[in-house]
Amino acid sequence: MPWLYLMIAAVFEVAFALGTNATNGFTRLWPSVLTLLAAAGGIYTLSLALRTLDVGVGYTIWTGIGSIGTVTFSALIYKERITLPKLISFAAIIAGALLLRLASSA
Fold first, then answer.
1. How far, in Å, CA of 27 to CA of 9, rounded?
2. SS (HEC) of the chain
3. Cβ proximity of 57 and 25 under 8 Å
4. Mind listing the pLDDT tens digit for each residue in 1-43?
5. I want to staple 65 with a disulfide (CB 3.0 to 4.6 A). Which of 8, 10, 36, 51 is the partner?
6. By CB neighbour count within 10 A (0-12 exposed, 13-18 middle, 19+ buried), where does 4 fall?
7. Transmembrane ranges (predicted)?
8. In this predicted structure, what is the pLDDT of residue 106?
9. In this predicted model, what pLDDT tens digit does every residue of 75-89 receive, in sequence order?
10. In which domain, by residue range, is 29 found?
């Protein structure tokens, strides 16, 4: 169950990051409200995951998935470019997350 909470927290993290861009400096009401709700949801579900997971593992994977999701969806939504260095960085983040997952099982 903690891994499910962590994945839900990561979805909230991506929504928070993308929503922050849509708030225009928190000058637009509804994007701001949704962004703050996403932030609260992410922190809450992360805290549920961290009841069981080590904080170093849980937080690192949460931010890693959030980073990859944010870059991926910002390319789709905001037409940002995904370059070769970004792809290499994604691979490194994924490899690190998988290794942390394996290390936490041991």
1. 25
2. CHHHHHHHHHHHHHHHHHHHHHCCCCCCHHHHHHHHHHHHHHHHHHHHHCCCCCHHHHHHHHHHHHHHHHHHHHHHHCCCCCCHHHHHHHHHHHHHHHHHHHHHHC
3. no
4. 999 999 999 999 999 999 999 999 999 999 999 999 999 999 9
5. 10
6. exposed
7. 29-50, 57-78, 84-103
8. 60
9. 999 999 999 998 898
10. 2-105
**Amino acid of residue 99:** L
End-to-end Cα distance, the chain: 17
CA–CA separation, 68 vs 86, rounded Å?
A: 9
Q: Contact, 42 vs 12, CB < 8 A?
A: yes
Structure tokens at 63: 């931010």
Output 86-94 pairs: Cβ under 8 A, ≥24 positions apart: 93/64, 93/67, 93/68, 94/64, 94/68
Radius of gyration for the chain, computed over Cα atoms and rounded to the nearest angstrom = 15
Kindly report, residue by residue over 48-77, the tens digit of the pLDDT: 999 999 998 899 889 989 988 999 999 999
